[in-house]
Amino acid sequence: MFVDQAKVILKAGNGGDGCVSFRRLKYVPNGGPDGGDGGKGGDVVFEVDPNANTLYAFRHRRKFKAGNGQYGMGNHCHGKNGEDLIIKVPKGTIIKDAATGKVIVDLAFDDSKEIVLRGGRGGKGNQHYATATMQIPKYSQPGQEGKELEVVLELKSIADVGLVGFPNVGKSTFLSRVTNAHPKIGNYPFTTLNPNLGVVELDNFGFVIADIPGLIEGASQGVGLGHEFLKHVERTKAILHIVDASGMEGRDPLEDIETINKELGAFNETLLAKPQVIAANKVDLLYDKDVLEKIKAVYEPKGIPVFPISGVTGEGMQELLYHLKDMVISMGTETIVYEKEIDLYDIPKVEEPIRVYHDEEDDVYCIEGSKVERMLGYTNLESEKGFVFFQNFMKENGILEELETLGIEEGDTVRLYYLEFEYIK
C-alpha cells in the first residue's frame, strides 16, 4: 500500500546518572571519589533508504525511542552511551514539527542523513565535585532527559516533470510508453491511486517523470484525494498537461487545462510559475482537427507549447520528449529542497519552575526544578561559604516561604533530589 504521510512521536534517549562512589582499597585508606559519568542518551536519526518508496512502515507504529545512557560506575568507569535510533525513510521525505507545521529537515538526496533529536547528556560522577575543602562529595549529577517530539512525515515525490490531467486522459499509458515504469492501466477513472515515477533515457541523458493521479475540480480544497495528490507536484521543475483531444470521453480539453491550473494555483501559487507543456493526447481518435488549433491559439501565445500525441501509436512522442529534455537541461539538475524553518536546538529552553510539595508517604518536604538541580551541581554545601549561598538561594526563590505555607515544622526532613537535611528555623 502506498502511504505518503504519517504522524509519529520521537523520543531521544535519557542520559545516564553520574555515580557516587569512593575508592576503597586495602592499602589506600584515604581513597577519593571515583564515581564515573553517565552515558549520553541515544540520538534519533533519519536516513534515506534508496529502496523505499512509501511511508507504509509507519502506518501501524506510532512511537520511536532511542536507547538510554547507562549509569556511571565506580573506579572512574563511564556509563555506556545509549544506542542511536536510525529511522529509514524514502528519498523526498520532509519531516515537520506537528505542532507548528514547520519544516525540520528535507531528506531530498540519496545520502541524506540527519539527527532530528539529540540524546540527553550524561550526568557527572562525584569525582568532578571534589575540591580542597570538600574531599568527599556525596552527590553526582543526574542525567538529562531526552526530548520528546511529535512530527509529521510527508513524502513529496522527486521528479523533473509532473504529469497532470483529469482521470482517464492517458497519463499512465504515456508514462508506460516513454519510461521504464509499469503503472496500472485501465479504461476507467482513478486507475492510478498513487504517484508513479519513471525515467526517460534520451541520448545518454535521463530525467524523471511523475504520473500524478487524476485531479478533479475542488482538489485544492481536499476533494477526493486532492491534497495527497497535489503535494507531489510541488517538487517538479516543469508540468506536463495531458488532455484528451479526441473528445471520446465527452471532455473539453480547454476547460480541463483551465480547471487544473485553477486547482494548482489554489493549492500553491508557486506551481503556476513552473514551465508548462501541453500534450494533446489520443490524436489517433481525433475527428475534429480544429480542437488542436483552438488549444494552440489559446496557449502558445502564452509561451506554453502544444504537442499532438498518441499514447497508443506513439505519434508525436519523440518531439515532445526532446522538448522536455531540453527544458530540464536548461533548468539545471539541482533538486528542489525545502528550507529548514525550525531548529529544535535554537529554541530557548523554558525554565522549569521550582516545585515545593509535601510527600505524605515518606513524610518529607520535596524541592524540585532545573534551577535547583543546577545549583546543587556547583555548590559546596560542606563549606561555610557554600552553605550561606544555599540559604540565600532558598530565601530569594521563595522556597522557605512556600515550606512555611505547607506547614513545615522544625525537625522535619527536606529533600532536594539526592540531598536531605533537617529543617531548622
Automatic annotation (TrEMBL):
Its EC number is 3.6.5.-. GTP binds at residues 165-172, 190-194, 211-214, 281-284, 310-312. It is found in: Cytoplasm. SUPFAM superfamilies: Obg GTP-binding protein C-terminal domain, Obg GTP-binding protein N-terminal domain, P-loop containing nucleoside triphosphate hydrolases. Keywords: Cytoplasm, GTP-binding, Hydrolase, Magnesium, Metal-binding, Nucleotide-binding. Its cofactor is Mg(2+). Mg(2+) binds at residues 172, 192. Residues 1-158 form the Obg domain. GO terms for molecular function: GTP binding; GTPase activity; magnesium ion binding. It holds the Pfam family GTP1_OBG. Residues 159-329 form the OBG-type G domain. Transmembrane segments: none annotated. One of its GO terms (biological process) is ribosome biogenesis. InterPro entries: G_OBG, GTP-bd, GTP-bd_Obg/CgtA, GTP-bd_prot_GTP1/OBG_C_sf, GTP1-OBG_CS, GTP1_OBG_dom, GTP1_OBG_dom_sf, OBG_GTPase. NCBIfam families: Obg_CgtA, Obg_CgtA_exten, PRK12296.1, PRK12297.1, PRK12299.1. Belongs to the TRAFAC class OBG-HflX-like GTPase superfamily. OBG GTPase family. Monomer. PANTHER family: DEVELOPMENTALLY REGULATED GTP-BINDING PROTEIN-RELATED, MITOCHONDRIAL RIBOSOME-ASSOCIATED GTPASE 2. An essential GTPase which binds GTP, GDP and possibly (p)ppGpp with moderate affinity, with high nucleotide exchange rates and a fairly low GTP hydrolysis rate. Plays a role in control of the cell cycle, stress response, ribosome biogenesis and in those bacteria that undergo differentiation, in morphogenesis control. This is GTPase Obg. The gene is obgE.
